[in-house]
Amino acid sequence: MFLINCPYCGERDQQEFKAGGEAHIERPKQPTELSDDQWAEYLFMRKNIKGVQFERWNHAHGCRKWFNMARDTSNDEIKAIYKMGEKPPPQ
User: Fold this and answer.
1) Which class would CATH give 3-83?
2) How far, CA to CA in Å, does 76 sit from each of 14, 31, 35, 42, 89?
3) Per-residue pLDDT band at 1 (split at 50, 70, 90)
4) Fewest Cβ atoms closer than 10 Å to its Cβ: which of 7, 48, 53, 74?
5) What is the pLDDT of residues 38-77, one digit of tens each?
6) What mean pLDDT value characterizes the chain?
7) Domain map of the chain by residue range?
8) First-to-last C-alpha distance (Å) of the chain
9) How far is CA 20 from CA 6, 30, 90, in A?
10) What is the SS3 string spanning the chain?
């Protein structure tokens, strides 16, 4: 367990939040022009790195707002938290 500093509500227990997967994934501009393999790549293939990962999180049992988090997956250390629409911090 760890604490997450919601950019809207402040510090709360991890149990109040739901992870929403990898952040900053750009939707294809012309999805109907993609092959089935390209569409599957967009939908299902995500990075699974050991190190800093940029993720989307939702404060499900609080303000219910979405935000982004840079988290080290090897030790759960939170490197940065920033609101949706803001630029990610440099790595």
Assistant:
1) alpha beta
2) 11, 34, 36, 26, 17
3) confident
4) 48
5) 999 999 988 888 999 999 999 999 999 999 999 999 999 9
6) 94
7) 3-83
8) 24
9) 15, 24, 21
10) CCEEEECCCEEEEHHHCEEEEECCCCCCCCHHHCCHHHHHHHHHCCCCCCCEEEEEEECCCCCCCEEEEEEECCCCEEEEEEECCCCCCCC
